[in-house]
Amino acid sequence: MDWMKIARGFVAPVAVGCAAFLAAGAAWSFQLPKGVVQGPMVEGITEYRLPNGLKVLLFPDASRPTITVNVTYLVGSRHENYGETGMAHLLEHLMFKGAPKHPDITRQFADRGMQFNGTTSFDRTNYYEVFDASGDNLQWALQMEADRMVHSFIAKKDLDSEMTVVRNEYESGENSPGQVLMKRMQSLSYDWHAYGRPTIGNRSDIENVKIENLQAFYHTWYQPDNAVLLVAGKFDPVATLGTISRLFGAIPKPKRTLPKFWTVEPTQDGERTYAVRRQGDVQIVALGYKIPSGLHPDSDVLDFASSIMGDVPTGRLHKLLVDSGMASEVFAFPQTGYAPGLQFFGAVVKKGAPIEPVRTALTEAVESFYKNPPTAEEMERVRRAYLNDFERSLNDPQKVGVSLSESISLGDWRLYFVGRDRVKQVKGDEVAAAAGRYFRRDNRVTGTFIPDDNPQRAQIPVAPTAQDLLKDFKPQNGSYVSEEFAPTQENILKRTTIVLEGGVTLALLPKKNRGATVSVDLRQHIGDERNLFGKNAIPGLTAAMLMRGTNKYNRVQLADAFDKLKISGGLTHFQTTRENLPEALKLVAHVLKEASFPATEFEQLRQQALVGLEAGRSEPQEVASRALAEHFNIYPRGDVRYETTLEEDIADIKAATLDQVKAFHRDYYGSVPAQMAIVGDFDPKEVTPLVDQLFGHWQAKEHVAPVLRRYADIKPMEKTLDTPDKENGFFTARENLDLNVDDEDFPALMLANYIFGEGGLRSRLMDRIRQKEGLSYGGGSQLVAGEMDRSGMFAISAIAAPQNLRRVDKAVREELARAVKDGFTQQELAGAKSGLMQQRIQNRSEDGVVAAGWTSYLYRGKTYEWSREFERKLMAVTLPQLNAAFRKAIDPAKLSVVIAGDQHKANGGK
C-alpha cells in the first residue's frame, strides 16, 4: 500500500546566457516596479511584496527549459465551517472551470502541453502549471492565474457537475482499507479541532453545499493578501516581475478582515480504540499519537523517530514485525501542519493471521522507544536521507516550488531552510525525550474511550511564531554550476557519442547540471521465447531479490550503500552525482552479478507477494483488468506472454523455490548484449573503460532474443463482475490493433487518441464523463503500437460509482461512435499537435527520459533521428488523414468491455 499517498502579462523574454549567474544565487540590481518592495533572499529565491499584499517568490534557473508557476492560497480544510467540510477541495476543482478572460482553462492547458494540478491540505491550497519555457506560455499562465484569483466563475452549473466528480473521488478513497482507516483515525483523534475532518470532506456536505457558501468562501480567502505566487525555472526575473506587477498589481487590496480561529484541542485523557469492519483481503493495525505543530521544534525531532521506526528495511518495526513473519508490511508517517497533528504507526497482516500479538508488539515498541534511544548509525541514516531529499529539491525548481507550499502554510517560506538546518542539529537524546513526551498510553488512539483512574496525559506545548524561529536564521549561499541545454533531437544527436564497449552499446551525453546530477539507464535482455517457457514467477522473483543482499552486503547495508552514493531510482535506471558515478556503476554491477539470495529474504518476499495478490482479490480495477487481459490471451500456460489468473499467480509464487531463483540468475543474467545511456554531469573518458570492465563481457549462459507478440483479432465480449462492498467501480475496454510505430497511420492515430481520451480533462472522453456529466474523477484512452512487432491495441478505462458505470459505458460508446462517424475538427487537431509537441519537449528536458530513450532506440537500431522524423510526420498530419486513420483502425463493434463494481449498489440497493 502507498502509505505516503494515503497520508498526503507582457511577454517575459527568456533569460539567455545567464545560467551560471542565476544559479549561483547572486542578487541582481534593477529598478523595482512602482510600489513593489523586495524582501529576503535565500539560496537563489527572492521575495517581493506588491502593494495589495501579494507575496512573490522568484527562483530563476536556466539549467532546464521549463517554468513552474505555483500559487499558494493560505486556506485549507481547517478553515471550513460546520456543514461545509470538503468545500476548500471542491473550490479547488471549480477553479479550473474558467474566468471571464480565460473561459476554457483546461483546453488551453492541453493545447499548450502543460502539466498542471491543484492540491488541498489542512492549511493551504495550491495550483501549479509546468510548461515549456517561452514568453508566451509564461505570460498566459500569469494572466490566467491573475484572472482566476478574484474573477473565477464559481457557477452553479459547474458545481452541479463537479460535485459528482468530487463525490466519485471520495468514493474512490472509500475503496481503500488504509484510507478509510486513516480517516477514522482523524475523526476519533480530535474532539473539536478541524484537523479531525479529512480534507475530502463528508459525503453529505459534498452533495449539499450551496453555491452561495462556495462563493463567499472564495471571495474571502482568494485574495492577493492571502496568496504567495512563485515562478521557478528559466525566465527573465526583471521582465517577469514587471509583468506580475502589472497583472496582479491591478487587483485591489481587499478591505475585508480574515476570520480568526480560536479552537484549541483539549489534552486527550485516555487511550481510544476503534474498528472499521468492511470487506477486504488484508488486516491493518494502526496507532495514532498527537504531536505538536509543524512550527514547534519537537516536530523535526519526532520526524527522526518516525523514520527510525518505520523505514523499510532499516526501521525497527520492519525488523520486529516483518523479519519475524508477524506482519507483511509496516508504516510510519506524520500528518501535521500549522496546528498540532498526528503521528501514525502501523502494520499490515495477512488475512486470517493472528493480529493481537502484532498490536501488542507494535504498541510496546512505539511506547518504549524513549527507553532505547536511537543509535548513531540510525541518526546518521535518517539525517543523510533527509538532507539528500532537501538537496534534490533545491536542484529542481519544479520540486522546490511545490515543497515551499507547505512552509508557506506554516507562516513563511524560509522555514523550509530552517527545517533543513534543524535536521543537521538534532541529537539522539532529543529524539528519545520527545518520543517519551508524546508516545504515551493516554495519548494513543487505536478506538473506544476507556475510563482510567490514573491518566497519563501528554500536554501539547504552544508553538513559537515563525518570527521567533527566524530570528537567528542565517541564509546559506549556494554555489551551483549548470549549462543551458536545448532539448531538441538535433542537439541531443550532436552532443551524444555512441560507442561499443564489449557487448554494450553505450550512449554518452555529458552536460553540466545543477547539483552535478547524472542519469543512467541500462537495458538488459534475458532469455528468449523458448528458454523462458515454464519459468512462471521465477523471473519476477529473481529481479525482486537482487536488492535484498549480495555476497558483500546484507539488505540494510545495501540500502545504506545506495544512499551514501546518492543513488535514487531503480537498479538499472537511476540518478546520482558526478563524483559518485564511478562507484555507483561498480555497486550496480556488483548487485547484478553477485546477489546472494538470502533464504529469509526470499521467504519474506514470497509472503509479501502473496499478501499483495490477496489484497487485490476484490479490488474493482484489479478484477476488471485481469478479466480483460485473460480474454485477450492467445498464449499457452507457461509462455512468458501468457496472462495468468490470480489463482495461478498465487500457485506460482507458492511453488517457486530459492534454488530455482538462484539457477535463473546464474543462467539468464548478463549484459552482453545490452544498451546503456549516461546523460548528465560526468567525464566520458573516466566512465567508458569502466563500463567495458563492468558490463562489456558479462554474457549469460542462455540464449537471448527478443520476445515478440503477434496480433490477433479477438472476438468482442461484455462482462460484468461483482465486487461487493466497494464504493467505487471500474470500467475498462479494449480492441486489438494490427499496428507498428513505423506505420504511415501511426502519427495520425496518436493525435486522434490524444483528442479522444489521452489529452486530459479537455479530451472528448473526459469532457463528457467528467466535465459535462460528472460521472468520473479519472479516465482516458491509450494507444499502443508494437516497436518490433505488430501487436497494438486501443484501450479505454475510467473509475465511477457502481450506479454510474452503465452511464460511463453508454457515454464511451456514444463518443467513440461520434468520433468514427463525424470525425474530429481542425481546432482539435491543432490543439493536439501543440499539446503533444510541448509534452515531448518537456520530456526531453529530463535526463532520465533522454537516457531511457537512447537505450530504447539503440535496441531497435535507431537514434533520436527517428524521433525527429516522427515529430515531422506528426506535425504534417492533415484533418482528412487524421479522420481516415481513426476510422480505418477503430471499430466500435470490436470493443470488449469489462465492468467491475458492487452490483447491489449498481442496482439501486436491490
Task: Briefly summarize what is shown.
This protein has 910 residues and is an alpha+beta fold.
Description:
The structure is a single chain. The protein is α+β, with helices and mostly antiparallel strands and 910 residues long. 44% of the residues lie in helices and 16% in strands. The strands form 4 sheets. It has a 7-stranded mixed β-sheet with strand order 1-2-3-7-4-6-5, sandwiched between helices. A 6-stranded mixed β-sheet has the order 13-14-18-15-17-16. Strands 8-12-9-11-10 form a 5-stranded mixed β-sheet, with helices on both faces. Helix 12 runs antiparallel to helix 13 and helix 23 packs antiparallel against helix 25 (646-655). The longest helix has 19 residues, at 156-174. The radius of gyration is 28 Å and the shape is globular. The two termini are 33 Å apart. Mean pLDDT is 93; it is low at 8-27 and 447-452.
Instruction: Give the percentage of residues in beta strands.
Output: 15-25%
Strand order of the largest sheet: 1-2-3-7-4-6-5
Low-confidence stretches: 8-27, 447-452
**Whole-number average pLDDT?**
93
Tell me the number of strands: 23
DSSP helix count? 35
Rg for CA atoms: 28 Å
Major sheet summary line:
7 strands, mixed
How does the helix and strand content classify structurally? alpha+beta
- The shape is globular
**Helix-residue proportion:** 40-55%
